């Protein structure tokens, strides 16, 4: 049965048109929440609609991005939503799914999703993120919940900072980089302001996201507006996993982009910026790989601008080892077993180079311990080196930080995904980065086996119960006469089970403890493996020689 037109009146905005599906769910797509007038400027929340009406029956544009070198996954078709296209100045939009029977007075919990993709790739328009499946599950288990997915700026458009951008933005409210984080803040504000008209509770908001989306969530629960957020789910990510950059480091990346566009570096800053703004967005997207070290999987991270988190400093991994969040909301932290495999194309270091970098970055004793622990030697095979690099990145960037964050937040719920991919691609047979959300969102149920559908549903139920203030699993595991802290594990056997958190053998916990106070350095090594970060944030001597004195170089 085809979906039919439905309408809802939103005070201050007007009539919102959307779809009512045969299962009773209602969906609204491409709702604009913010806008901006110039590339690299901060967005402003939208407070009115033309003619007091918005037709939300088609997908909105999504953020410009390069073609993603990613193993393909089948995407369900949704022909009634039209085609999905990129667009620079109209990509700040969101999608809303209401469970069947939702009434304006219901005050249902709201879950806001930020997608991943290294802040370079991804969109809320992916059909695997359609909210119907999870909305129906929420009704089935007696926890009806509203789902919101958000498009925001990516890549250069969402994060680039420079002296030129900072000077220009000073006339328009400030800011240097982190445009995407501010976009997301505007999305949160829009939802809090307007979701009541759709049956949601603006005081019961859960943010959840995966990878770069989890970074986003982690940023917002540290920001001055964190009181808007009641709960948070961090899936495979904390703030440092994509790295973060000083303004000077981003300025160097900016100059590399300016040069790659054929713009004269000797121009005054305002003219350089104007010339860069005149470059078609398609060209900037195409230059992403080249400027970002010719990586197959480039990524951006927050700029340490001193503004986006207010008085709070953007955290390093040491903050996760030693500190607790200044936020009184509820927290859930998840990871997958083979996170680092996402960087498989970047594992190009030789064993000798890896040994050299380890000894440069880590204290000698720790470097020796690390080389022994991961069995790294000059005689290892290429396959052995690949698996060592994957394990280092998994531990340093993902699972180690997640462990320490959970350790410092004893009330947090913790979940591990160990079920291995059934798909026929290079990651098949691995519990890889992103696999958990493909299952939990229900978008691939048409091709999964019954036991896999059941596992994805169990995962979704855990998240939904958490967002409804319930315990997704028992907090304690019986150990004789006492009870120990529990964690959820979605096992290789496709079961949702409960284990003792600090004794679970599926993560290298004892090694994390050994590396504790060296996690920042361990992370630095991982970024040399995946990004060649030291090269990324520096400039060649030839560039410096051509530039005028108003250009700052590291």
UniProtKB/TrEMBL annotation:
Keywords attached to this entry: Hydrolase
Matches recorded under Gene3D superfamilies: alpha/beta hydrolase
Keyword Glycoprotein: no
Signal peptide stretch: none
Coiled coil location: none
Carboxylesterase type B domain segment(s): 12-474
GO MF term (any one): hydrolase activity
PANTHER family with a match to the protein in the record: CARBOXYLIC ESTER HYDROLASE
Family: Belongs to the type-B carboxylesterase/lipase family.
Name the record gives this protein: Carboxylesterase type B domain-containing protein
Species the sequence originates in: Tetrapyrgos nigripes
């Amino acid at each position: 049965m085809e979906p039919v037109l439905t309408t809802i009146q939103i005070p201050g905005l007007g009539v919102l048109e959307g779809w009512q599906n045969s299962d009773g769910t209602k969906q609204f797509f491409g709702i604009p929440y913010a806008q901006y007038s110039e590339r690299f400027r901060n967005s402003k929340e939208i407070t009115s609609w033309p003619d007091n009406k918005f037709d939300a029956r088609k997908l909105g544009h999504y953020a410009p991005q390069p073609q993603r070198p990613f193993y393909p996954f089948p995407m369900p078709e949704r022909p009634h939503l039209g085609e999905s296209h990129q667009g620079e100045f109209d990509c700040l939009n969101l999608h809303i799914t209401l469970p069947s029977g939702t009434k304006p007075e219901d005050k249902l919990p709201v879950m806001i999703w930020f997608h991943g993709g290294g802040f370079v790739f991804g969109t809320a328009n992916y059909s695997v993120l359609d909210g119907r499946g999870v909305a129906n599950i929420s009704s089935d288990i007696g926890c009806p919940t509203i789902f919101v997915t958000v498009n925001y700026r990516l890549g250069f458009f969402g994060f680039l900072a420079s002296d030129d951008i900072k000077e220009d933005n000073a006339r328009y409210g400030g800011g240097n980089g982190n445009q995407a984080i501010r976009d997301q803040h505007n999305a949160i504000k829009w939802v809090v302001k307007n979701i009541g008209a759709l049956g949601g509770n603006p005081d019961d908001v859960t943010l959840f996201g995966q990878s770069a989306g989890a970074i986003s969530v982690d940023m917002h629960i540290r920001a001055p507006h964190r009181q808007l957020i009641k709960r948070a789910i961090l899936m495979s990510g904390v703030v440092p996993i994509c790295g973060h950059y000083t303004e000077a480091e981003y300025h160097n990346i900016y100059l590399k982009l300016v040069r790659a566009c054929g713009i004269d570096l000797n121009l005054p800053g305002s003219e350089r910026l104007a010339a860069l703004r005149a470059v078609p967005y398609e060209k900037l997207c195409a230059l992403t790989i080249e400027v970002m070290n010719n990586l197959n999987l480039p990524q951006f991270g927050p700029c340490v601008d001193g503004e986006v988190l207010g008085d709070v400093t953007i955290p390093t991994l040491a903050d996760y080892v030693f500190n607790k969040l200044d936020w009184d909301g509820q927290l859930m932290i998840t990871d997958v077993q083979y996170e680092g495999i996402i960087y498989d194309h970047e594992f190009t270091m030789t064993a000798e180079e890896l040994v050299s970098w380890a000894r440069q970055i880590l204290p000698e004793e720790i470097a020796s311990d690390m080389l022994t622990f991961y069995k790294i030697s000059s005689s290892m095979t290429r396959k052995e080196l690949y698996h060592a690099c994957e394990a280092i990145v998994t531990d340093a960037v993902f699972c180690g930080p997640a462990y320490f964050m959970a350790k410092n937040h004893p009330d947090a719920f913790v979940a591990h995904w160990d079920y291995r991919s059934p798909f026929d691609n290079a990651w098949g047979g691995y519990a890889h980065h992103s696999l958990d959300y493909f299952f939990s969102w229900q978008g691939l149920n048409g091709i999964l086996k019954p036991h896999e559908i059941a596992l994805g549903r169990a995962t979704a139920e855990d998240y939904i119960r958490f967002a409804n203030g319930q315990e997704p699993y028992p907090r304690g595991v019986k150990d004789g006469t006492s009870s120990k802290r529990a964690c959820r594990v979605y096992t290789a056997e496709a079961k949702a089970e409960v284990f003792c958190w600090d004794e679970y053998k599926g993560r290298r916990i004892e090694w994390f403890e050994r590396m504790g106070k060296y996690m920042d350095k361990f992370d630095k090594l991982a970024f040399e493996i995946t990004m060649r970060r030291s090269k990324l944030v520096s400039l060649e001597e030839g560039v410096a020689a051509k530039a005028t004195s108003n250009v700052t170089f590291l």
